[in-house]
């Protein structure tokens, strides 16, 4: 999303991907490795063909070196995404998705699309899902008042995208509530 500098009060998408890469994901290692300690915790040991749970950033590093296969999360498949898309287009509220689904899906599709079943269809469904959810966000922003905005089940990337508009709108609404515009028919001469 390209925003002018004045509206960039949010985290960038690559920064959100970095945060999302801390979540654990399953892999099938192709190498053996002893338990390794990092600041975030100790992971391993890795013993092929046993599955292991490690942070996404480690999985990406191993995948790029052809030392593992990434196992897609349960929500990153055609059936689940098709079901969520159907819910998004048939109901007024947002369907429940993992909080960082957009970022994690992008990282996995960029690095490990060969480990996914039907990655092009998954990309297409994610795009359609994103568009349906953005349309709902826009509708929600149209009903914005000075006291609240209720958009439950928004995900990290979606919150980040509407934050600049929401902050600017709330600032303007707060000013209008504090200093109501006087009626132009009652001007003092």
String of helices and strands = HEEEEHEHHHH
Helix content: 40-55%
Total domain count: 1
Terminal CA distance: 49 Å
Name the CATH architecture. 3-Layer(aba) Sandwich
Mean pLDDT: 86
Total helical segments:
6
CATH topology: Ribosomal Protein L9, domain 1
**What structural category do the secondary elements indicate?**
mainly alpha
Shape: elongated
Number of strands: 5
Low-confidence stretches: none
GO cellular component, one term: GINS complex
Subunit structure: Component of the GINS complex.
Subcellular location: Nucleus
Keywords: Chromosome partition, DNA replication, Nucleus
Short description:
With 189 residues, this protein is mainly alpha-helical. It has helices at 13-20, 56-64, 78-90, 101-112, 119-142, 156-178; strands spanning 24-29, 36-38, 41-43, 52-55, 68-70.
Can you describe what's shown?
The protein is mainly alpha-helical and 189 residues long. The chain has a single domain (9-120, 128-142, 150-177), classed as Ribosomal Protein L9, domain 1, CATH 3.40.5.50. It is 47% helix and 10% strand. Strands 4-1-5 form a 3-stranded antiparallel β-sheet. α1 (13-20) crosses α4 (101-112) and α2 (56-64) runs parallel beside α4. The longest helix has 24 residues, at 119-142. The N and C termini lie far apart (49 Å). 22% of the residues are buried. The model has no long low-confidence stretch (mean pLDDT 86).
